UniProtKB/TrEMBL annotation:
It is found in: Cytoplasm. It comes from the Bacteria. It holds the Pfam family FAD_binding_3. An FAD-requiring monooxygenase active on some tetracycline antibiotic derivatives, which leads to their inactivation. Hydroxylates carbon 11a of tetracycline and some analogs. This is Flavin-dependent monooxygenase. Residues 9-340 form the FAD-binding domain.
Length: 388
């Protein structure tokens, strides 16, 4: 594909997958515009830490020409994995040996904060590539393969290829599929610790350098090291999607939420309970949703999906951002690798995307089922021992 024959490409969503696709296209002289509903790149918190896998996330970064920059930002020590029992005693601790601590070790998955990864991708794009404050309302076909995007406020854009990288509640997906995300039965309440090593030394030591999980009887704690001394904590429960309403809680009443969480974890160890009581950031309700497995759609000229828009799954796949970036890289590669038409390129991409995303989503569903089960302590311990 050359610049004179390149289609008008509109990527909806400035997450890792959409930005990766835009970056690789630009490296090969193909223009793409990214539209995002956020007012700016710093409008909201981007979430926790990510581990970049060599066969997916790091492969995409290599194709984007950003692997060296990523390695300079990554935290190889973040690969540490710990399990604790409900008393807070560590029962498993996998720390990569020093000889394998390099961020580009073939079997290692170095960590990076999601916000830093997004900034790396954003900074690599040509100025003006991302149009902020563009909230997509709906997509309508004009002619075969050409669509009109309608944004809140009345703006419209016509595109020869619309890439739905717009996440769990994708508006683009509605053009292809009637599927809607379904509640997994598990809710996370997110909280966090700032300046953990100095202000929360006991919890910092318990967390270690990477991720700590304490899971048992349909409940648990997941604590993750982020950059700048922050520990992000997810307090998880198998419960209804609106547990706080059922309990008569006002989510804005942080003290009431804290007390309700403590009641949910009656009998757990004192140190683990401090992940609730010692919060520096308050409590944010995050019910976990997933698309039906497998999620497929009938090929439609001029529109496709990537990332969560295509295969939303629980975080227990460990592959969400990695898959999104691989999707973006594969779509870009298909578009620049000499397919006869844009439609042929998209068909080739979807033939890769759909089977691998179905397999990953099946694994994610099994993962969350095992992590929040009556015997989750035993299931998770057996799983991590097998992997490590």
């Amino acid at each position: 594909m050359n610049a004179s024959t390149a289609p008008r490409i509109a990527i909806i969503g400035a997450g890792p997958g959409g930005l990766t696709c835009a970056r690789i296209l630009q490296r090969h002289g193909v223009a793409a515009t990214v539209y995002d509903q956020d007012a700016s790149h710093s409008a909201r918190d981007q979430g926790g830490t990510l581990d970049m896998h060599p066969e997916s996330g790091r492969r995409a970064l290599r194709e984007a020409g950003l692997l060296d920059e990523f390695l300079a930002l990554a935290r190889p020590e973040g690969r540490q994995m710990r399990l604790a029992d409900r008393e807070g005693c560590v029962v498993f601790d996998a720390t990569p040996p020093e000889s394998d601590a390099g961020a580009d070790a073939e079997d290692g998955n170095p960590e990076i904060d999601r916000g830093r990864l997004r900034d790396l991708l954003l900074d690599s794009l040509e100025p003006g590539t991302v149009r902020w404050g563009r909230k997509l309302a709906h997509v309508e076909p004009l002619t075969t393969g050409v669509h009109r995007l309608y944004f809140a406020g009345g703006a419209t854009v016509d595109a020869d290829l619309v890439v739905g990288a717009d996440g769990a509640w994708s508006k683009v997906r509605r053009r292809l599929s009637e599927a809607r995300p379904v509640y997994t039965g598990v809710t996370f309440v997110e909280t966090g610790l700032d300046d953990a090593d100095s202000r929360h030394p006991v919890l910092a030591a318990l967390t270690g350098d990477g991720t700590l999980m304490a899971l048992d009887d349909n409940r648990g704690f997941i604590a993750q090291r982020n950059g700048h001394g922050h520990i992000r904590v997810y307090v998880g429960m198998r419960t209804d999607a609106h547990w706080h309403r059922t309990a008569g809680l006002d989510p804005a009443d942080q003290g009431a939420v804290r007390d309700a969480l403590l009641r949910e974890f009656t009998g757990w160890g004192a140190d683990l309970l401090r992940f609730i009581t010692d919060s520096d950031t308050g409590y944010t309700h995050r019910p976990l949703y997933a698309l039906p497995v497998p999620h497929t759609w009938r090929h439609t000229p001029g529109v496709t999906l990537l990332g969560d828009a295509a295969h939303l799954m629980s975080p227990f796949s460990g592959m969400g951002a990695n898959l999104a970036m691989l999707d973006g890289a594969d779509l870009a590669r298909a578009l620049i690798d000499g397919a006869a038409t844009t439609d042929d390129a998209v068909r080739a991409y979807e033939s890769l995307l759909l089977p691998r995303s179905a397999a990953a989503a099946e694994g994610a569903a099994e993962g969350i089922a095992g992590a929040f089960a009556p015997d989750s302590a035993a299931q998770v311990l057996a799983h991590v021992r097998q992997r490590h």
